[in-house]
């Protein structure tokens, strides 16, 4: 029995190593492989805003998975964690993160609001989280892609950089929600428009595979949600600093 | 019409393999599914399944139509469509059970948005009626509605295939082209269209039927020429490299992209070239598990969908460790084989029973079923 268990453990270890994963020790929960965070697509407006004006305005546009419920929800959700991480790592820059989150909105609904957003907030960068509701409602993938393209083009014309953020990895519901075509389309739109994609799906999957977070957990406990959002906020901060070639105080720590 | 006589065990064999792959692909987060063909080319097990089903449907009902006429064969095809409809509704009931369980047992605040999947439970009157109308189709439950439509339309197509086979195939290709040109599809609830567009996927089904009724033989000189085989091999290699790179534009599964269709054709050309009809392995006990599954395809397909729910449930409730994924995948396939074996036993026992008059009816199951 022991040998079987040992063999299975060995097999699983070998497979995990094969998948390019590393076991994250306590305290390194937010660890993300570089290839998931850093690419060749640049954030030129962010670079310029920071260089010229020493300020950076970011708008997070998204749906239910960009907020957390409860009294401490707003401060614990990833937009607030992103703001804190950026302020810590870019102390000489006036960083402001505004959130425009509306639940139960498809990509098309959100895309329609982009023009107004540009006028109201004048963001240097828009982080656009979408896809979950489209997948749940099984919106035509072609329509989804068209909405993404429309939104991204509106933002680019209005002088803002864009980061697309895809869905959460949700192991308990993933047999019921077919994310594949939507995640693929987001990747394609990001490639074609040369914008960074924050691959939340792959990143959270990585955390689940390495055991950093138990995403299968059930229950109303907020601790897990707060920790995951904190890590997402730090991850986006690292992505922005890299893609905009910013000089941060502590390049290693925040990841 | 010189259709090949006798049963081609390769069909059952590859349909059985396709059923296993569909089962593995339906288990989310399953490492074992990395080994399935969808990750190494453009097409996947669905193409094999639809093609073989068209082939067997024409093989069985074509013979019946020649012997007993259009009305009898047509009636049997429609009865088969009804059986598949009942199976689909049965699977929907299992889906409702699973999703209702998740609704009551899982309240992680991290996943508040994902819980919108439960929205449809708020309007059970609308949702259940839409499901019965085949418009509301939860994830992983798209294949059977496609078959139902294909079989409903099959009697006249089969009739035409018997007398003017090239015309029937031409009409199928024309419908495929027009579908692409005009974006035809069937509407879904609450939004969008069918995940497997029947107007596009019919091409593969009709092509399978055409091959069964002598088309394969007519094609054999071209399909088995060294040039075709080399082109097919080169195309598979190209698809393999592209798929590993993961950089290609998403290939349209909804409308059966031409690249997917060509990939399936290339696979078929190489299979026919290197796996002869009288391949000794097909008669050995090694090949029995996939063959027996392929011979009871409707039941085993439904069982596979159910088992993928069960495997997912085990991964959620017990552990998602890699060994659990391997064990769940392995146990699932063993259960599929065991149930298929049991179904075969029932069938043989019924045929032997005195007074059985079933022998004269077309043996849809033994012919691989139509699903």
Query: Major sheet of chain A, described briefly?
Result: 5 strands, parallel
Shape of chain B: globular
Low-confidence stretches of chain A: 1-5, 12-27
Number of helices of chain B: 13
Number of domains of chain B: 1
Average pLDDT reading of chain B: 87
Whole-angstrom Rg of chain B: 21 Å
Rg on CA atoms of chain A, Å: 19 Å
Assembly level: heterodimer
What percent strand of chain A?
A: 5-15%
Give the overall silhouette of chain A.
globular
Arithmetic mean pLDDT of chain A? 86
Distance between the termini of chain B: 25 Å
Which structural category fits the helices and strands of chain A?
Answer: alpha/beta
Topology of chain B as a string of helices (H) and strands (E):
HHHHHHHHHHHHH
State the share of residues found in helices of chain A, binned by percent. 40-55%
| Secondary-structure-derived class of chain B | mainly alpha
Q: Kindly estimate the percentage of residues of chain B that lie in beta strands according to DSSP.
A: under 5%
